[in-house]
Amino acid sequence: MSSETSIDFRGIISGARNDGEYNKIVQVIPYAQLIGMELFDMSTLAGKLQPIFLMPKNDHNIGNPTLPAIHGGVVGGFMETSAALHLLMTMETQAVPKIIDFSLDYLRAGRHTDTYTSCQVWRQGKRVANVAINAWQTDPDQPIATARAHFLLVQD
Amino acid sequence: MSENLTVKAGRFVSVLPHCRLLNMSVDHAEGQSVIMRLPYSEAIIGNPENGVIAGGSITTLMDTACGTAAFVGLPGNELCPTLDLRVDYFKSAQPGKDLVAKADIIRITNSVVFTRAEVYQEHGDEKDVVATCAGNFMRIGMQINGRPV
Fold first, then answer.
1. What is the CATH number of domain A3-152?
2. What pTM, to 2 d.p., does this model score?
3. Which of A93, A110, A142, B26 could form a disulfide with B10 if both were Cys (CB 3.0 to 4.6 A apart)?
């Protein structure tokens, strides 16, 4: 990638933080676009930004065509990307955090319908952040999957 | 015999719409082991600054490879949904190169299939491991056509 691209990317991030158009950050990540991710809601909870991400129903994300159900890997990819974007939207850094590890528990089949995620940063040190991610469809209290990830916070 | 399992694995993966979207394919399947490939593409980039692909596409490769290993390692056409995945990312995947996953069944019990997978990139004869994963799959007593085993 050219250095021109990197200037654009950081400009988009700081621009989105300034004007509150956080969906611009989602739109600049090709993988997020591939699975159809978007920012569904951005609220402020106890002084902290709390994004909710949406992955709309999409035929290309199906894993099991018989049920039909969303590919488990896509649910995982959506959750990982949500956690990285949550950090990118709420932290100072302008570089995409690098995932170190990821533990994902599937609780229910992901039906062929809209899916949502929200994240909670349990601990953010200088180098590592611990993030919990829940994914749900109709009821946030009935998650289809729950996950935990560690990210390396890349220094600018 | 091993050729039949490669065909069985290839047929299983070919009907999964998201795997078709990512152009994932089966290189080889034999015994309780599967080798799958995910070609590099700009559509799966997770970091637009350096072209490194998203961890999510590697998760999809590993989930599919482990699930396919469970599918070919069990008799018949038994379908086993993923119970959980535990992934370690050792390093960023090098842009422009395919990712290869080798998945193995570690143990089959009445209820669970335990698998492991390693994802690597090939540099000549050298294997550069970028991620590993442990995936467990539930035996729910159903075939892929929705009928009981």
1. 3.10.129.10
2. 0.94
3. B26
